[in-house]
Specification:
Elements (H helix, E strand, L loop, with lengths): L6 H5 L8 E15 L5 E9 L2 E8 L4 H6 L6 E7 L2 E2 L2 E2 L2 E7 L2 H6 L14 H13 L4 H12 L2 H6 L13 H16 L8 H10 L4 H4 E2 L5 E2 L1 H5 L1 H16 L4 H13 L15 H24 L28
């Protein structure tokens, strides 16, 4: 149905106008809050394939009771009135009803709802397996294969984050593959970096996120994710795979170090500072693709005609959306 507005289309509307609209969105996040006057309200983040928006629903709204009973990750149909706050869409919602993926498929709008990378899952998986094939050291290659094969289903579909970068279905796979492509391009320049260790580290650096997060649509941090974090969880996965593959003590220690240090800074979650050529390399490539992933997603989802994006916490700035003028 064409009368359902995507989030991208909502964001492109005139901020000075108040228009009635309807849309089909996922509840990505729902928080119960209390206003200064003591009244409860809901802070809600909605998502579809084109982006997200946040709005508040107060207890005097007809939609409050219905939304209070609906869990994160649910697909809903909403009706509301467009309002903007600080140039960001934050609509008033007055009607809510549950919607199903089956209905979305029947109505031909399923592609509007679930955000995925521009590249297909199958193509990304082919690129990942190609990367594994580049590892020449038998035990290192077996370590990577053991870890990936034991987590293939989750790895193919998982988000790479809740909000920061590659935070959508297949996002972890996309992030890993893009890091592989960067690594394969740059490693010939940095001959001090061991090729096999670096490629193995790139492929396994974020594997702990498969236990850190859960949720097919609305990604949440798990109990283990809160108590240990993906760096420690990934270290455990790598150690188990290394033992099964009879990887030497030295290579096991170096591969574990890549996982433990890839976050770059201890205040960002690293268990140690990168102290081998391979760990420094993987950490820098990870940081590059995380930031460029934010840029790519922002450009994909930018409202038509917008000059700057909203503030991006991961970049600590807004992003200029218009391409360079090369005709001057």
């Amino acid at each position: 149905m064409t009368d359902y507005l995507t989030i991208k289309k909502l964001q492109a509307l005139d901020p000075s106008s108040e228009l009635a609209f309807s849309g089909i969105y996922f509840i990505k996040r729902k928080l119960n809050k209390t206003a200064k006057n003591g009244n409860p309200y809901l802070l809600l983040e909605f998502s579809d394939a084109s982006g997200t928006f946040v709005t508040n629903v107060f207890n005097n709204s007809n939609a409050f009771v219905t939304l209070d009973d609906i869990s994160e990750g649910s697909l809903i149909k909403i009706k509301g009135t467009t309002r903007f706050y600080n140039q960001q869409i934050s609509p008033d919602i007055y009607s809510v009803a549950l919607f199903s993926l089956e209905e979305a498929t029947e109505q031909g709008i399923i592609h509007q709802l679930i955000e995925v990378p521009p590249e297909s899952e199958s193509h990304l998986w082919e690129q990942l397996t190609h990367g594994i094939e580049q590892i020449k050291h038998p035990a290192l290659k077996a370590t990577v294969e053991n870890a990936i094969q034991n987590h293939e289903s989750a790895f193919r579909s998982a988000s790479a984050a809740i909000a920061m970068h590659h935070a959508y279905r297949h996002g972890l796979l996309e992030h890993t593959v893009h890091m592989l492509q960067v690594g394969l391009a740059l490693l010939p320049i940095y001959k001090e970096v061991d090729f096999d260790l670096a490629i193995a580290g790139i492929i396994l650096h974020d594997i702990g996120k498969l236990e850190e997060y859960e949720g097919d649509i609305a990604t949440k941090t798990t109990r283990l994710g809160t108590l240990q974090g993906h760096v420690v969880l990934g270290y455990k996965v790598v150690r188990k795979a290394a033992i099964l593959s009879n990887l030497s003590e030295d290579l096991t220690e170096r591969l574990e170090h890549i996982v433990l240090s890839h976050q770059g800074e201890k205040e960002w979650g690293a268990a140690a500072m990168a102290a081998t050529p391979e760990a420094v390399f993987v950490s820098m490539v990870d940081n590059l693709d995380a930031k460029m992933g934010m840029v790519q997603r922002t450009l994909r989802n930018a409202p038509e005609g917008a000059e700057f994006s909203d503030y991006l916490p991961g970049l600590k700035t807004k992003l200029l959306l218009t391409p360079p003028n090369k005709e001057i």
